[in-house]
Each structure stands twice: as C-alpha cells, then as structure tokens.
Amino acid sequence: MFDLFNKNNYMSVRQFAVQLSLVTLFIGVLLWFLSSFSVFYEHQHLSWLSLLLFFFISIVMYFSGRWGIRNDNKNLFIGLVYAYMGGKMLLSILLIVLYYFYVEPSTKLFILPFFVVYFVFTIFESYFLVKLNDHNEGE
Predict the structure, then answer these.
(1) If DSSP codes are grouped into helix, strand and coil, which group holds residue 68?
(2) What predicted TM-score, i.e. pTM, was given to this entire model?
C-alpha cells in the first residue's frame, strides 16, 4: 500500500511527503467519521491535537533518520530510533495528562481517540524507518 511511487527500496523526501499526506488525510477522515460517536465527539480536541503532534513527530523522525543513516557512526540510527520512541511516549503521556487536568473528562474513554491516531502513526513511522534502514543495508 505504501510503496506508491517507490522505484527502489529507498524512501525519498517526495515519497515520504506523499505518504505522510495520505496517512494524515486517512486519519483526518477517520476522526471526522468517528466524531459522530459521542465518546469521540466529546474529545475531538484531543484527537486533532494528537494528529498534529504525530504529524510533526513523523517529520522530525524522517529527516533525523535520514541524517542518522548517512552518518559514519552506524549505531546513530538505532540510537535515534530509541530516542524517538522514548520521546514520543513522553510527549504522548504529557499530552494526555495535560488534557486530563485541563478538560477534566467525565469518562476514561477520552483516551480512545488518542490511541486511534497513535496506532496508525506508529505503523507508518515503523514503515518508513524500516525503509530508511533497508536502504542503508543495501549500500
């Protein structure tokens, strides 16, 4: 599905931009559809904030991953992946805690919209990091 426009095993900036746009559009449509259910509608601010957060995290991950792959230190890429996993978790927890204390949701189901976005972006990020690493292995 994601190999759109991919002529080899490398993900160019253009391919990344197209695929990130498609994933973001898909999630946006999904969130719009899910907002017809009360638990998602009630907490759609968290959904859209999550989408925005993970959109920017993906951009930073991609460009720093490209830099890490091209670096002479071959362990740098793996270190960056671990750093982003930890940073993404930390930012996710921070977003959820701030939302919880600021909005004071009436139910614990407020976290469902967040996990929809988190899950889809985690799959996409894993995909493009593997593509970047595969390109490195082929050199």
Answers:
(1) helix
(2) 0.85
